[in-house]
Amino acid sequence: QVQLVESGGGLVQPGGTLRLSCAASGFTFSRYAMSWYRQVPGKERELVATMTSFGGSENYADSVKGRFAISRDNAKNTVYLQMNSLKPEDTAVYYCNAKRYYANYWGQGTQVTVSS
After folding, report:
1. Residue 34: how many CB atoms within 10 A of its CB?
2. Which residues, including other chains, have CB under 8 Å from residue 71's CB and lie 6 or more apart?
């Protein structure tokens, strides 16, 4: 069955770094666009970063441009989110997403908390 398993979240001080990972299984990873979303209580889930299948292009939310970087390793069926210069407003549950045509899969989320 399809699985997306996020890891790497945690508590970090403002200005710190974290690297999230999402291990995928149960589908042909390289053919899917991979994205990271985040959500805070009471707000809609927002798109943070997207990378197309085979890593052709990437896009970022304005709020994270220049600080976050998405990457993928199709040999390892894994997508990453490198988060630098973290701010308290980056605190959220981060979700991994895989999408191709009508197929749309989600991970269970990993908590990122930025606080001193």
Report:
1. 30
2. 51, 55, 79, 80, 82
Euclidean distance between CA atoms 8 and 102, whole angstroms: 29
- Half-sphere exposure of residue 110: CA atoms within 13 angstroms, side-chain side: 20
* Pairwise CA distance, residues 1 & 77, whole Å: 15
How crowded is residue 38: how many other Cβ atoms within 10 Å of its Cβ?
23
The SS3 of residue 62 is coil
Q: What is the pLDDT of residues 69-78, one digit of tens each?
A: 999 999 999 9
For residue 54, pLDDT beyond 80:
no
Give the model's pLDDT for residue 55.
Answer: 67
Check if the beta carbon of residue 56 is closer than 8 Å to that of residue 47.
no
Instruction: Extract the tokens encoding 16.
Output: 């710190």
Phi and psi, residue 49, nearest 5°: -160, 150
Task: Give the distance from CA 73 to its chain's centroid.
Answer: 14
φ/ψ bin of 55: left (φ > 0), alpha (ψ from -120 to 50), beta (otherwise): left
